[in-house]
Amino acid sequence: MLLCKCDVFTDTTDCTYCQEHGETTVAVAWCSVCDDALCEKCYGAHNCTPSFRHHDVTDLSEEVKVKGKRKAMCKVHKQESLEFLCQDCKKAVCQKCCILYHRKCDAVVTIPSQMVIMKTELTEMIKSLTKKEDETKFRVKEQKLQEQRERDHYSLMKSHIQSACQKVIDRAKEKERKLLDRMENISHKHIGQLKADIKSGEMSVKMYQQQIELIDQALQSECDMDVYEMYHGCEAVGDADLKEEGRIASVTFRQDTDKLSKSLDDLPLGEIKVLYESVLDLKATPVLQDTIDIRVADDRSKPNPIDVTVLVVNDTDTVVVTDWDNTSVKSFYVKNNQTQHSKLSLSGNPWGLTKLTHNRVAVTVPSRYKIVIVEVNPDLVLRLTITTSKQYVGITSLTPSTLAAGSHSPPCVDILDMTGNVLRSISPLHKGNNILQYPDFLSTTRTGNILVSDCGTNRVVCLTPEGDVVFSYRPTGDTALKSPQGITSTDTGDILVTDFSLHRVIHLTESGQFVQNLLTSKDCIQNPRGMCIDERGWLRVCLGKGVIQTFSCK
Predict the structure, then answer these.
(1) pTM exceeds 0.70 for this model
(2) What span, in angstroms and rounded, lies between the C-alpha atoms of 527 and 545?
(3) Could you tell me which of 418, 423, 481 has the C-alpha nearest to residue 452?
């Protein structure tokens, strides 16, 4: 509602009329209709004018400075005051404006008649603004607390990074000390041997000089016996063999520079993961951004993508997928504006996939009782093969040094170290029955719990790493799961699950409550399996027709 400027106050100390004539006279009265301050003389003239006699005039004392109301005048008709309000046009108008311009308007009322409504609305507005002010103050207070928490958090992370680096430096210094100590011991022995050889050689030189002098004297002697004795004496002397076993011939220091550089590149100091707010808006309509056909030239079978993740390697988004029917892991990326791929063939059919570091993934090969570690450059390189005691299918990374993996026989989720040793085996019971049968897909929540998608019991289970059940989602009716497969969670804690048979992606709350069908067959979702959310907030879904579809929700 538009308000007129009739509540603006003006100073009434001096007479308005006298000021117009260049005089300054103290006002004794105020006419609210004329919007003028009047001195005693002008006040008398004002009352003598018949048209002014009934104006509302207020007496003013000599000592008091009063502020009175003044009227707002029409900008079109300068002599007319704004007394009406056109509610259709939301505009304050004068009487002439009403006649000339607002005759066809349905709601033209006087401003005084709207005072109660306007004041009521303004009062409510004050309440609303006060509430918003309080809310904003509270939010700012919370943000300041969060700012301090984040400063403390960054300081703690900095300390952890420095501590990790210092441990590496300490180990490197220890290695350096051992190498230097060994080098010093070898050097001392080698140089000692050389000094002994030099001293022995010098003694041999003196001995040879003495022998030469004796032979020379014998040759100069006129006695044949002197020559004969010297001759037989020299034959008996001969050369002594002074060589020792274990003598050092030379010492070298070899360094594999490439291996050292590779070790430094792979040094597991840790990684910094950034979670962005509102990157994935699950309230928005998903939009298809891209479709990747994972078939490559040397495939012998139709591609069957099972699980997928996305890594950012050298600033390149790299999609990594397991292809069950072609017994391989594949990567797809864009380089020089061209889509390129890499294929790593395995000895068995790969299933589950999880990101370990910024450039490494772990892949389950259940038929071979193995978990393989693959480096993504973004081309794929097999780095390590871990032999396991069970045929693990689903897999997720819990910490840099532990994995969670799902097994069919027996049905369980095991916590493993990076050598395949079982640290803990989880077989949760519900009403006396194990609620796991085929834990084919796993994911880690933002709080470190384990999400399990089990197509054997048609449920989603959330477990703590200690084995406690946080929730078990197994609805009936329209929201019932028929064949749950891939599972992932967002940075806000929301959970997404694919249903292979019902061709949909389901959205659950962090506590396991149904929210919506995020994607359905209407979105071209056909037999979805594994999925992930990349750092952009894009949702990648493996489909049975051999493609990976990418959706954005912003």
Answers:
(1) no
(2) 8
(3) 481
Contact between 344 and 298 under an 8 Å Cβ cutoff? The reply is no
Quick: pLDDT tens for 409-427: 999 999 999 999 999 999 9
Cα angle for residues 397, 309, 388 (degrees, 5° grid): 45
229: its two tokens: 């004795």
Rounded to whole angstroms, how far apart are CA atoms 531 and 498? 8
Distances 482 to 163, 433, 478, 504 between C-alpha atoms, Å: 49, 20, 11, 11
Strands 287-293 and 305-313: unpaired
- Measured CA distances, 57 to 33, 36, 52, 77 (Å): 8, 10, 10, 25
Closest CA to 494 of 432, 454, 539: 539
Q: In what order do the strands lie in the sheet with 36-38?
A: 36-38, 29-31, 57-59
> What is d(CA 84, CA 110) in angstroms, rounded to the nearest whole number?
4
Beta bridge partners of 517: 506
Residues 199-248 have pLDDT tens digits of: 989 998 998 898 888 888 888 888 888 788 888 777 655 554 445 556 77
Residue with tokens 């389901």: 506
